[in-house]
Design brief:
By secondary structure, this protein is an alpha+beta fold. It contains 6 helices and 9 strands; from the N terminus they run H-H-H-H-H-H-E-E-E-E-E-E-E-E-E. The relative contact order is 0.16.
């Protein structure tokens, strides 16, 4: 199977805008909190973080780790995907190569080397969420993460270690997996080249 690396984002690409726009994330978190009628203190308590850190995040002066962001959106009964979209996605059927949004996780996690290529742009109308996870050599996800749902993946290229609960699996191109999202999970690239995973989960969580 031939795998083509995604094109490098241009200076004005959506990936650049998302990476350089912590204010958008903070604004949407604050708006959702206020819509839910929660105080800063109440949300901080529910998400197990300090009020001062949450205030900085809402004001675009700090970025949460991915596990913290999961806790925040769960407490808000919201979705991470909505927090990142530059605009609400139009309903569509076909999404052409080279036009799909790329979202870097680097600003949200204390690690390096992971970006998500949207296969299905986030929309309230979708039951599934699908991304290609691109992991640079040495890159790993923040975690462990737990949430409601089910996930399935297929390794397109490279070698990864997938940790599910207390088990570790070494996977390479052509291997697939499925697991209950309520089990603690995270992954890392253990190979000598960039790895890519076709990843589907439901309900949408990112």
């Amino acid at each position: 199977m031939n795998v083509i690396n995604p094109p490098l984002p241009s200076e004005n690409s959506r990936e650049d805008k998302i990476q350089s726009n912590p204010v958008r994330l903070g604004t949407r978190l604050k708006l959702t909190r206020q819509t839910r009628g929660l105080t800063l203190k109440a949300l901080a308590l529910a998400a197990d973080c300090s009020e001062s850190l949450l205030s900085k995040i809402e004001n675009g002066k700090a970025s949460p780790s991915l596990p913290m962001l999961h806790r925040l959106v769960q407490a808000l009964d919201s979705n991470i995907g909505w927090m990142f979209e530059e605009t609400d996605a139009d309903e569509g059927v076909v999404f052409r190569a080279g036009t799909r949004p790329l979202i870097s996780l680097d600003p949200l996690r204390r690690g390096e080397g992971i970006s998500l290529e949207r296969i299905i742009p986030y929309s309230q109308g979708h039951l599934l969420q699908c991304n290609i996870h691109h992991i640079d050599v040495g890159g790993e996800s923040a975690g462990p993460i737990q949430h409601v749902g089910e996930e399935v993946g297929y390794v397109l290229v490279g070698e990864i270690e997938l940790m599910i609960g207390d088990k570790t699996f070494r996977l390479s191109a052509g291997d697939s997996f499925v697991f209950n999202s309520e089990l603690a999970h995270w992954y890392r690239n253990v190979g000598s080249q960039r790895a890519s995973i076709f990843w589907v989960n439901t309900p949408p969580t990112f």
